[in-house]
Each structure stands twice: as C-alpha cells, then as structure tokens.
Amino acid sequence: MAKLQSLDPHTPMFAQFKEKTGPIVLANTFVVPKERTEAFLALFRRQAEFMKAQPGFVSLQMHKGTADSQLLMNVAVWESTEALATAFGSPEFQRMVAESPDDIVSYPHIFEQIDV
Fold first, then answer.
1. How many degrees, rounded to 5, is the angle at CA 36 between CA 58 and CA 9?
2. pTM score, two decimals?
3. Which helix (H) or strand (E) holds 52?
4. Which of 73, 84, 87, 108 could form a disulfide with 78 if both were Cys (CB 3.0 to 4.6 A apart)?
C-alpha cells in the first residue's frame, strides 16, 4: 500500500476529516517511481471512477510535474469534508488503495478557499 505522509505534520488529513466544512479541495501529491507511472495511473483511474460516483463529489484533475519529475498531483473538489471522508473510508475504495505499491508516497491535504 502507498505510504501516506502528512504535508503539514501539525494537521494530518485524518484530523482534517473532523472539521465540518465545505466546499473543500483535496490536493494529493504522489511521488511515483518512473517505472510505476503507467500502472499507478491505471489504478488511479479506477479510484477516480469510484469517487466520481460518490455523493458530494464535484470535480477532479490530475497533474504531472514537468522536467521529468516523478510527481503527480490530484486536485479534487468536494462539497464537504464529510462527503470526502465517507467516500475515502468506504471498504471498496480502501481495497483499491491497498493495491498501490509500497514505494509510492502520498501527501494529501484538505484546503478551503479564502478571499484574497
């Protein structure tokens, strides 16, 4: 299974699930070894199809780092942290997450929009 790391050690993603807010953006950066990129993206597409069918899902985009980077970044919009937490915790999604190789590292974090 992919290794889950906190982007902000003071606020891990599971602590963020407790915050009742929305809409929210999940930004999840993955470090994926070059030789695993295609297999990872195939698995991610399956996970994305599942998430797109869940209540509260709004949108999703995947981005690839430039200049031969090993980074991929998923940006997903959800109506609320509660909707994301419910989808993330579902047994079906957790089975798919368990399929990720151990040498992939994931840095998820939940954000909400602010006015600037």
1. 60
2. 0.92
3. helix 37-52
4. 84
Report pLDDT digits (tens) over 55-113. 999 999 999 999 999 999 999 999 999 999 999 999 999 999 999 988 999 999 999 99
Among 96, 95, 89, residue whose Cα is nearest residue 48: 96
Using the Cα atoms of residue 19, residue 74, residue 94 and residue 87 in order, give the sign of their dihedral: positive
Convert the pLDDT of each residue in 32-63 to its tens digit.
999 999 999 999 999 999 999 999 999 999 99
CB within 8 A of 107, min separation 6: which ones? 5, 6, 7, 28, 29, 30, 31
- Rounded to whole angstroms, the Cα distance separating 88 from 115 reads 28
Q: Which two tokens stand for residue 83?
A: 């909707």
